[in-house]
């Protein structure tokens, strides 16, 4: 592009600076090792708590693992996890798309942003439990209440991130793009989306995590199928091992969804920062 500065990677090489590919791989290995260490510490703390407090307060890792196996063998885990996944991802996708589109529009058009910001701020400040109660009154018990609650929770997170991201773009580059008559699609891909990346990725991770938490909570209260239904049954039977097993399974599905959906976006951002000469972030 005539109006964009693409010379920084070349300047780095001319200055004799080493390429960052090896550093990026080293960082990835370090992150993986520290992640494993953190999970190991968590498991150790869990087992220590189970030993000190006893199984009526915190089941051991072995008891929780046995409960997970029972849930998997009985066929209860698969459908429940799939139902929660549908409620969480479906609601997050619907609400996130609305918030993202309105956030980008609000960042580009002042009237849209000025009108939408207080509305989405109010939505963000409303406790999810209130939306669950309203959804039960509007839709009745079932999965619709969970999906609606997730959507109304995810929308303001993505809206505010998109609004701030678009507002952070370099005005000089935007003016130069207009001066050189860059096509609208090119302005979107080369100016707006890169400005959004640093804001949207943390917001997407937050929205995804909140979606699973809100979906499970709504399922517990609405009597819908899913992990929340399994938790309600375990609570009724006072089965702490099954309760912890459902929690671990839900978190595992969340981590898998995060790795499959957000890891490619993180890789794209790291590649973009590497081409621009920006040190990669963990």
Outline of the structure:
The protein has two domains: 50 residues; 217 residues, MetI-like fold.
Keywords:
MetI-like fold, 2 domains, single chain, 12 helices, 0% strand, mainly alpha, 282 residues
Would you mind describing this structure in some detail?
- With 282 residues, this protein is mainly α.
- It has 2 domains: 8-57; 59-275, MetI-like fold (Orthogonal Bundle).
- Helices cover 82% and strands 0% of the residues.
- It is built from 12 helices and no strands.
- Helix 4 runs antiparallel to helix 5 (110-125), helix 5 (110-125) packs across helix 7 and helix 9 packs parallel to helix 10.
- The longest helix is centred in the last third of the chain and has 39 residues, at 184-222.
- It starts with 7 loop residues before the first helix and ends in a 7-residue tail after the last helix.
């Amino acid at each position: 592009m005539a109006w964009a500065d693409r010379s920084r990677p070349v300047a780095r090489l001319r200055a004799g600076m080493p390429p960052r590919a090896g550093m990026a791989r080293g960082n990835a290995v370090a992150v993986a090792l520290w992640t494993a260490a953190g999970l190991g510490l968590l498991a150790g703390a869990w087992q220590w708590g189970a030993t000190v407090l006893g199984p009526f307060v915190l089941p051991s890792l072995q008891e929780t693992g046995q409960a997970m196996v029972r849930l998997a063998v009985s066929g209860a885990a698969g459908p429940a996890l799939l139902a929660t996944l549908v409620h969480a991802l479906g609601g997050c996708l619907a609400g996130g798309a609305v918030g993202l589109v309105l956030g980008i529009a609000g960042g580009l058009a002042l009237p849209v942003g000025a009108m939408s910001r207080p509305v989405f701020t109010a939505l963000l400040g409303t406790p999810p439990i209130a939306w669950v109660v309203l959804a039960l009154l509007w839709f009745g018990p079932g999965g619709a209440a969970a999906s609606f609650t997730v959507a109304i929770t995810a929308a303001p997170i993505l809206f505010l991130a998109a609004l701030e991201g678009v507002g952070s773009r370099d005005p000089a580059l935007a003016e130069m793009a207009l001066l050189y008559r860059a096509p609208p699609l090119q302005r979107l891909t080369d100016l707006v989306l890169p400005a959004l990346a640093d804001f949207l990725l943390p917001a997407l991770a937050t929205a995804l995590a909140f979606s699973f938490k809100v979906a499970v909570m709504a399922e517990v209260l609405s009597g819908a199928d899913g992990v929340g239904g399994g938790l309600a049954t375990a609570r009724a039977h006072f089965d702490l091992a099954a309760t912890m097993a459902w929690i671990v399974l839900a978190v595992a599905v969340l981590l898998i969804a995060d790795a499959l959906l957000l890891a490619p976006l993180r890789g794209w951002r790291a590649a973009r920062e590497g081409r621009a000469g920006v040190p990669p972030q963990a």
